[in-house]
Design brief:
The chain contains 7 helices and 12 strands. With 278 residues, it is α/β, with parallel strands linked by helices. The chain folds into 2 domains: 199 residues, Vaccinia Virus protein VP39 (Rossmann fold); 54 residues, no CATH class. An 8-stranded mixed beta sheet has the order 3-2-1-4-5-12-10-11. Strand 7 and strand 8 form a beta hairpin. Helix 2 packs across helix 3 and helix 6 crosses helix 7. Bound molecules: S-adenosylmethionine. S-adenosylmethionine binds next to strand 2.
């Protein structure tokens, strides 16, 4: 399994997109509808209401933030990223066709997730393991403290996490999509530092064109316990783990996440970690 929450059996669109790294990334890796369903259900289970304000940290092209705004007329989203390029791409593509109300309910901010403050929100997300770029415990604690401060009372902080023995192996795994291949490349792993260097490459199925190192990541591979302990330390209580089930036939993840305190060891796994601010 690659480092992608998205299952390849999901709906595919015809191959009309240009060979553009942000478009290909979204098709290969992201599934905002599933994330939003998870967020709405988990929030309602805790607070008995529907959340309407969401901040997407490390948002890149803000795919989730844009889908959040479209999902409900009462929804408002903030997206925060250091890099102006994906933000501009997201504004031009993911927010293309927004009406006046939708545009007014989306705010994309070029800035550091540690520094950007605004009105408190119901939900903050950091998805596709983006916080793995924070390589020390003190940086992680600074980020979690900032997230805690940006949530209102009765708020959820939702992170995803991946691991398992395969996460530490130097593997290059190709997933076929309509019109392109997605290649997840775990290129380096340092077991002392728990540091990994990974790349995403895209290629045409013909093999004629390859977009090498379209995205590069220098990450610390955090564990669930480390993340939960850090969340607790800054005030989130309780913290929860939603573990993905496995399809019997294929052994692949099934996209169904359930609240667990213990799990079976598998070669690779994905989970959501949720911190609750009372
Ligand atoms: C893995 S990508 C984002 C993926 C996206 N969240 C998703 O769900 O697919 C990581 C992004 O984090 C951004 N980034 C890294 N450090 C940041 C920071 N301290 N503050 C804001 N953005 C940051 C990078 O510019 C990059 O666009």
């Amino acid at each position: 399994m690659g480092r992608s929450k998205k299952r390849t059996k999901g709906k595919q669109r015809p191959d009309k997109l240009p060979f553009d790294k942000y478009a290909l990334y979204q098709r290969a890796v992201q599934e905002p509808e599933a994330d939003i369903e998870f967020i709405d259900e988990t929030f309602a289970a805790h607070f008995d209401r529907t959340p309407h304000t969401l901040r997407e940290d490390f948002c890149a092209a803000a795919y989730l933030a844009c889908e959040w705004v479209k999902h409900d007329d009462a929804n408002r989203a903030w997206g925060v990223d250091l890099d102006p390029e994906p933000l501009a791409w997201g504004q031009a593509n993911n927010a293309a066709g927004f009406d006046e109300s939708q545009s007014e309910r989306l705010t994309l901010i070029e800035g550091d997730v540690l520094d950007v403050r605004h009105d408190p929100v119901d939900v903050i997300v950091a998805f596709n393991f983006s916080y793995y770029c924070l390589q020390t415990r003190s940086e992680l604690l600074r980020y979690f403290t900032a997230a805690y401060g940006n949530l209102g009372p009765g708020g959820l902080f939702v992170l995803d996490i991946y691991g398992g023995p395969e996460a530490q192996e130097l593997v290059e795994e190709t997933t076929e999509h309509d019109g392109f291949n997605y290649v997840w490349d775990q290129d380096e792993f340092d077991p002392i530092q728990s540091r990994m260097v990974c790349y995403i490459h895209f290629e045409k199925p013909s093999g004629k064109k390859r977009m090498k190192r379209a995205f590069a990541y220098d990450w610390r591979l955090w564990t669930i316990l480390e993340v939960r302990e850090a969340l607790s330390e800054v005030g989130f209580a309780p913290t929860e783990v939603y573990w993905e089930g496995t399809e019997e036939k294929t052994g692949e993840g099934d996209g169904v996440f359930t609240l667990e305190e213990s799990a079976e060891n598998t070669e690779s796994w994905i989970a959501y970690i949720v911190g609750i601010k009372q």
